[in-house]
Design goal:
Layout lengths: L1 E6 L2 E7 L11 E5 L4 E4 L4 E5 L6 H12 L4 H8 L4 E2 H9 L5 H12 L5 E5 L2 E4 L2 H29 L11 H6 L6 H9 L6 H8 L6 H13 L13 H12 L9 E5 L8 E7 L5 E8 L10 H9 L3 E3 L2 E3 L4 H7 L10 E12 L11 E14 H4 L5 H6 L6 H24 L18 E7 L2 E7 L4 H23 L6 E4 L7 E4 L4 E2 L4 E2 L11 H16 L3 H4 L7 H35 L4 E9 L2 E4 L5 E3 L11 E10 L4 E9 L42
Parallel strand pairs: 9-15
Antiparallel strand pairs: 1-2, 1-5, 2-3, 3-4, 6-8, 7-8, 10-11, 11-14, 12-13, 14-15, 16-17, 18-19, 20-21, 22-23, 22-25, 23-24, 25-26
Helix pairs in contact: 1-4, 3-4, 5-7, 15-16
């Protein structure tokens, strides 16, 4: 005796193992086609086969082949409207003399055709309603056509051509694909085996121009899904300009002659200086910060833009501004177009300095005013010209006397911070240009028509130090002012060690690396949202004094302010990571421009990670794992991968002529070298805001 039975949805054959003539038990002992012995319940049996003359595997194979010949449409017609048993349908289809093989074939056929027949029990079925069957057959036909089309797409993609139907879907397939779609299945199959996956496939098919398109597109998709321009915000700049004029009409005009110090490509000029001789022979130093917080208010249309973006994004070859150009132009501290200085709205900090550059122990003053902007000094023209000698003797150096006093005071501010660093257990930082043997850490990227030029810039120039020290002083002064009056703000805190050592928070705290307390970011409100938020709080302080905490936009323990601090910290980090990725990309392109293979020198950082000395290109070199930090080696770059941002490197050996030491200026190198923002928690926390890129 043999049985056709169901197991896990499949129909199988087995042989009864009872003694001859004995009534079968329930469950029945059986032997499967594979020789396995088991128990079979009678309720699972579909068909008993008493007269089988051939081997069970052959019988099952014959039934499966016969099932392929069934006319399912005719079977559906024969089934009628009511529930039926498959043996009854077998009689209708084959006749009363249906063989066991035919009965098995019909059972297998209708079991495998759920769009025609619905299961109602063991061997029991009900034909599908006509409308549902029609819809299902159409779906099956569509699926067949999709599979045919999918195969055509796969063939074209593998031949290096992007099918016309896929071209409009390229970005979607790269960054937010529907993995159930035929298009995704086609590109996924065609990309199988490629190290770079779908992005590499699209580059080969010229669906995207280069790996740069992939890196940019992925970043835009995550952080700028509406696009990087401001058209979709629909701001009325004429109305905003009139509102700004009304707000600024009542502001006093400062009796100073202000100037800024910025990179030539900087368009968001948000800080400037003035130095004014006083009657007593001392000097009033003014630090003037652009004041967009006078017009932009929490929750208004402009604030929504800044709140979404949170910061300007800098990267080699361009930038994405936090605020629209039309809004920036109202508040940027640009010089006048005529001979007279152009007054610009600013939040100004005034301190008193003696002729030797020492800050006098007198109260500082913070005011909202219009500041006459006389000049926008550019680093490209002045940085190399401004030296200690030129400040002492040169007659053709613009603002020589002012810069000399600012330089003297910057040295005094720096010395004060170093005393605090020592108390925090950190070593003193040396002021000025770093050791010539040290690993350069600041670079400029210029990208034109896909060709990159990378230039090194020594950290610690006089102008760099002036801006850094005075911005640090301004931020710490305003942070302490807010803290004393219990007006909440967003603070930049660095304490202890670990991944969260440096963070944004709403409670005052020390910045051990800088050697100061109560450090906020207030000096870049045109390009960082944290600075704009802090400016609102400062404006409330200026206008309301000790009652400011009652009327400031953000009150103590404000949950919204905490959320802003957390969002800003995360987004600012993501922007810096993108900047670092693009720097790595353009460094690799620079290496390729030199002609591969390219021999160059690297300096070991740690754990086999090294950096090319001449450019900020980071490479993993296993041969350096056992070498000391600072060890110099010669390598050869053989090939680059613009998608993975890696390079194939041949190690050529150590440079024996240079002793490896740790004190080579790389002890503070970080995993991601943020050369654009120069935000490395040292003097460069508030640097001259050189974008280090070609910025529009």
């Amino acid at each position: 005796m043999h049985f056709l039975y169901e197991e896990s949805g499949d129909l199988k054959l087995a042989t009864l193992m009872s003694a001859s003539g004995a009534a079968p038990a329930d469950p029945m002992p059986i032997e499967t086609m594979s020789g396995k012995r088991a128990k079979l319940k009678s309720k699972d049996v579909w068909l008993q086969l008493a007269h089988v003359t051939q081997a069970l595997p052959e019988l099952l194979k014959g039934a499966q082949d016969e099932a392929q010949t069934l006319d399912l449409d005719f079977l559906w017609e024969c089934a009628g409207e009511v529930e039926f048993h498959f043996l009854d349908l077998a009689k209708e289809y084959y006749g009363d003399a249906a063989s066991d093989l035919q009965k098995m074939a019909l059972a297998i056929g209708i079991q495998a055709a759920p769009i025609y027949f619905r299961r109602k029990g063991r061997g029991q079925f009900l034909r599908a309603p006509a409308e549902q069957l029609k819809a299902a057959l159409l779906a099956v036909e569509r699926k067949k056509q999709e599979l045919i089309l999918q195969e055509q797409w796969i063939a074209e993609l593998k031949e290096g051509r992007c099918p016309e139907a896929l071209k409009p879907q390229v970005k979607a397939l790269l960054f937010h694909p529907d993995k159930n779609s035929a298009a995704y299945k086609a590109v996924h199959a065609a990309a199988h085996g490629l190290p770079g996956g779908i992005p590499e496939l699209f580059i080969r098919c010229q669906a995207i121009e280069s790996s740069l398109d992939f890196h940019e597109g992925r970043f835009y998709k995550e952080h700028f899904p509406k696009g990087i321009d401001f058209a979709h915000y629909a701001l009325d700049y004429e109305i905003l300009t009139r509102q700004a004029q009304q707000i600024l009409e009542g502001l006093p005009t400062a009796q100073v002659k202000a100037f800024s110090i910025d990179d030539a490509s900087t368009t968001e000029i948000d800080d400037a200086f003035s130095v004014t001789l006083q009657d007593d022979g001392n000097y009033q130093v003014g630090v003037h910060i652009a004041a967009p917080g006078l017009l932009i208010q929490p929750q208004d249309a402009c604030d929504q833009i800044a709140r979404e973006r949170l910061s300007t994004v800098y990267y080699p070859g361009g930038k994405i501004t936090m605020l629209p150009h039309e809004l920036v132009s109202i508040f940027s501290l640009d010089e006048g177009q005529k001979e007279t200085a152009s007054p610009r709205p600013a939040l100004s900090l005034y301190v008193t300095v003696d002729p030797a550059g020492q800050l006098l122990d007198l109260p500082s003053k913070t005011v909202i005013e219009l500041v006459p902007m006389a000049h926008n000094l550019r680093l490209d023209d002045l940085e190399e010209r401004v030296t200690q000698e030129s400040l002492d003797t040169s007659d053709d150096l613009p603002y020589r006397d002012e810069l000399r006093l600012l330089w003297l005071s910057a040295q005094a501010l720096h010395a004060r911070r170093q005393d605090a660093r020592e108390q925090n257990g950190l070593k003193r930082e040396v002021l000025g240009i770093q050791d010539a043997k040290a690993l350069l850490r600041d670079f400029s990227f210029k990208v034109e028509d896909g060709v990159v030029t990378i230039g090194a810039r020594q950290r610690g120039s006089i102008l760099d130090t002036i801006v850094a020290e005075w911005m640090i002083h301004t931020n710490s002064t305003w942070g302490a002012w807010l803290a004393v009056h219990d007006v909440p703000a967003i603070y930049r805190v660095q304490k202890g060690w670990g991944p969260q050592r440096t963070r944004m928070q709403t409670q005052p705290g020390p910045h051990e690396g800088l050697g100061i307390n109560d450090y906020t970011w207030c000096t870049s409100p045109l390009r960082r949202y944290a600075d704009l938020v802090n400016q609102w709080q400062l404006i409330a302080m200026v206008k309301n004094g000790v009652t400011a905490k009652l009327v400031a936009p953000f009150k103590p323990k404000d949950a919204q302010l905490m959320a802003i601090a957390a969002d800003f910290d995360a987004t600012y980090g993501a922007y810096n990571e993108y900047q670092a990725r693009l720097e790595q990309y353009w460094c690799l392109q620079y290496a390729q421009q030199q002609g591969l293979p390219w021999k160059t020198n690297v300096r070991h950082l740690k754990d086999g990670r090294a950096r090319v000395e001449s450019i900020p290109l980071y490479l993993q070199i296993p041969e350096l794992l056992t070498q000391a930090r600072g060890a110099r080696a010669e390598i050869e770059i053989l090939a680059i991968d613009g998608l993975m941002l890696t390079a194939s490197v041949r190690y050529l050996g150590l440079i024996e002529s240079e002793a490896a030491t740790e004190d080579v200026g790389i002890e503070d190198e970080v995993e991601v070298n943020l050369t654009v923002t120069l935000d490395q928690e040292a003097v460069s926390e508030e640097p001259v805001k050189t974008s280090q890129t070609t910025n529009p």
